[in-house]
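Try it yourself: sequence plus adenosine-5'-[phenylalaninyl-phosphate], in.
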Amino acid sequence: MEIQLNKLKEKILSDLEKVTDSSAWRDLEIKYLGRKGELTKILRSVADLGEAEKKNIGKLANNIKTEIVAKFAAVKNIILEKSVNQSFIDATLPGQEIDRGHLHPITQVQNELEDLFTSMGFMVIGGPELESDYYNFEALNIPKYHPARDMQDTFYIDQKNKAGEYDLVMRCHTSPVQIRAMQKYGAPLRCIAPGRAFRSEATDACHDHTFYQLEGLMIDKDISIANLIAIIKELLNGIFKKEIEIRIRPGYFPFVEPGIELDIKCTICNGKKCPACKNSGWLELLPAGLVHPNVLKAGGIDSKKYSGFAFGLGLTRLAMMKYGINDIRLFNSGDLRFLEQF
Ligand code: FA5
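Structure, out:
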C-alpha cells in the first residue's frame, strides 16, 4: 500500500502541474479528493489494515493527504490570480458609444419652419387628420358633387352619417385648419398648421399617399399678394440659406381668388429635368392665393373688413429639395440606412 500511495501522490502532483483553469482544477479535485475520489478510497481502506500496518501507513497516508490538499490550494490561488489579471478593467479606455436616435428629416425641416414663422408673429396650430367632409371641402368653397373634388383622390371613410352620407375623410390637405383657426381665433390672424395629408395616389418619385404639408394663413386689413410673396421669399431664404429660383403661375383652387402656383427650380438636377421633378426642371411646391370671401364667411370673418392670404406648402417636397433626395418614398420607408444620414 505504501508503494501504491506514493505512486498516486506522484500522479496527482504531475496532473496538478498541467492544470491551467478552474474547471480542470475542479475535475481533478473530484477525481482524487471527492467522496469517491482515488485518494479518498485508499485513505478509507487504511481502516481495514492490521494494527501495526495501520499505524505506519495511516501516518504516511495523512501526510500525503495534507501535502496534496495544500498543493491543490496553491494551484487554485495561481489560477485565480491569473484570471483576475486577465479581467483587469482599464478605466482610462474610451467608453462604448451608445446609439442615440434623432429627429426625422421632415421634423427637422418642420421645426426650422416653425421657428421662422413664430419669429414673424405666426401661431403654430394643429387640426384633426380624420376630417369631416364639411371642413375638408364644403367650408373651403367646394360644394358636394363639385368637380373640384376630383383634384385630389381622397380617402373616404366607410361609415355613413345619420343622413346616409359618407362624411368622414382622411384630410387630403391641411386647408381645413384655415376654417378651424378662423372660427376659433377670428381676425386679425397669423398662423401656420403643419401636419400630414393623405391621398389615394399612384405613388412615384414625387408623390406619396401620406405626406406633410404646412398651411399658412394671414388675415388682416389690406392684405395683398405682395404680402404673400414677401413671406414666401423669407421662407425659402430661411430654409435654403441661398437664393432659390422661383416661378409663379396662375393656379385654380376654389378657396382662393386669385390663386397662384409657386414652383422652385429643381435642386436635384438644377433645372436639367429628372424624375424628382417629373422631368420638368421645376417642382410644384407651394400653391397659394388670397382667401376667397366664401371661405372667410365660413370662418365667421367679415370679408368687407378683412382680406387674407393662404398657402399650402408641400413640406415633404421641400425636405426633398433641401437635402437633395431624389425619391419621396424614402421618407416613409423606415429604412435606417436612409434615416441615419440626417
Ligand atoms: C392643396 O393641397 C391646397 N390645399 C393648397 C392651398 C392652400 C392652395 C391654401 C391655396 C391656398 P395641392 O393639391 O397642389 O394643393 O398640394 C399642395 C402641395 O402639396 C403641392 O404643391 C405639393 O408640394 C404637395 N403635394 C401634393 N400632393 C402630394 C403628394 N401626393 N405627395 C407629396 N406631396 C404632395
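One thing you can check immediately is this: The pocket of adenosine-5'-[phenylalaninyl-phosphate] is lined by residues 152, 173, 175, 199, 201, 207-208, 211, 213, 253, 256, 259, 284-285, 287-289, 310-312, 314, 316-317, 328 (CB under 6 Å).
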